[in-house]
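Standup notes
- DV: blocked on the single-chain target, sequence here:
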Amino acid sequence: MVFRKPPDGGWGWVIVVVSFFTQFLCYGSPLAVGVLYLEWLDAFGEGKGKTAWVGSLANGIGLLASPVCSICVSSFGARPVAIFSGFMVAGGLMMSSFAPNIYFLYISYGIVVGLGCGLLYTATVTITCHYFDKRRGLALGLISTGSSVGLFIYAALQRELIDLYGLDGCLLIVGALSLNILACGSLMRPLESSDSPPPEKTCVDKVPDQYFVYHEKEKTVEENISILEKGYVDEKCANNMPDYKQDSILNKNVLSSINVNEKDTYKKKVVEQTNFCKQLAKRKWQLYLNYWEETVVLFKNKVFSALFVAILLFDIGGFPPSLLMEDVARSANINEDDYHMPLISIIGIMTAVGKLTLGILADFKWVNTLYLYVTTLLMTGLALFAIPFAKSYLTLAVLSGILGFLTGNWSIFPYVTTKTVGIEKLTHAYGILMFFAGLGNSLGPPIVGWFYDWTQEYDTAFYFSGFCVLLGGFLLLLAVLPCWNACTNQSSKLPPNTYSYKVASSA
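- DV (later): unblocked, structure below
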């Protein structure tokens, strides 16, 4: 499919609105799963660790399955994937209301809802990048705030629904609300070329010539030769017989020739279908080989390789505070009466502000998005190092706000990925990076928990988290600076598909 030049407006703003509400509807419940977590503890009587797996799967499985999500969006398009995923999210939430045990929730809420969210996230980011170029940072910042807004609204909404209708009624109503994703997905019109497409080829024509093992012309020549030889023999025999015998033999030959032709036609169709299946299988295998070759090419790009290490370390160190900050306050013996607002709420509010602000900054020509992303990583690492020194609600609230704002760098991460690998490879590269992000989300909280079990304090755990984030930021910075210098000095020698980074001072 050939895409037009991104319009940076028009129907693109409709795409932004529906993508915002899509992330709002699909991520609202999984991000506010802490409200449901307490109810599941009371309902099933399982341990906290076992029950916490439900929320962990819902938030991590979508990222871990990002390569699969990317292949689905590339193969079927954003609109069909969004509609199908809407059914997954709604169905998973509704099925969770009938869960007889915690293991059923692993499947219905953890895997089904989590995978649906991953598909929807990939679809919304991809379709938005297709519609925007100059304003891509603003557009991505707007749609990514949908999940943060959903966190606040769904946290209060689910609590109110549980009080009114119970846990099962809450999940049914939230699942019904998620069906609005279908309406949002139907408006995700693909950005296709306005030129008239070439005449559609048949399935066989689409298969490369080297894969053909059946040649129609050679087959026809062989059949013609056999028919001629057979006709010559029959004619010679017929000339040596009486007329009445010739007539009877002629009738028999006609009948036999009809049967032979029917058998030959059937055999011919079987051969054609068999060889077509072989050709199709070879073509699919070639596509898989091409996919892995493109993956190897991506990792040969040192900026992309450093980016995947940075996102992995960032999620290992930067994700646990959003889950553990309340427990950090309790460990610091902070009185609950001093709480003017829950720390997790402060993180969520500032995350939405950070996504929007960083998205706007990314659109300025004098701002280099990779420098901006590296800055957020380094500042996050320093903020994590400061958490062990915070002994009051005010200092923890300030650090929570800083961490929440810096976590908003998720809005510019697709922008950075696009600038690194190009729009043509965005879906492929972004899926790989999101897989490692999901791996970091899955490993981060357990590692921090192990440090706490080992030392009975959070100080060492957050020193480790800060070190991971700082290490990822410095590795990405080292990979980026030589690349920019080379691109600045040798921009004329670069291939046409290679992106040339410009230093902010030279823009």
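- Follow-up: The radius of gyration is 31 Å.
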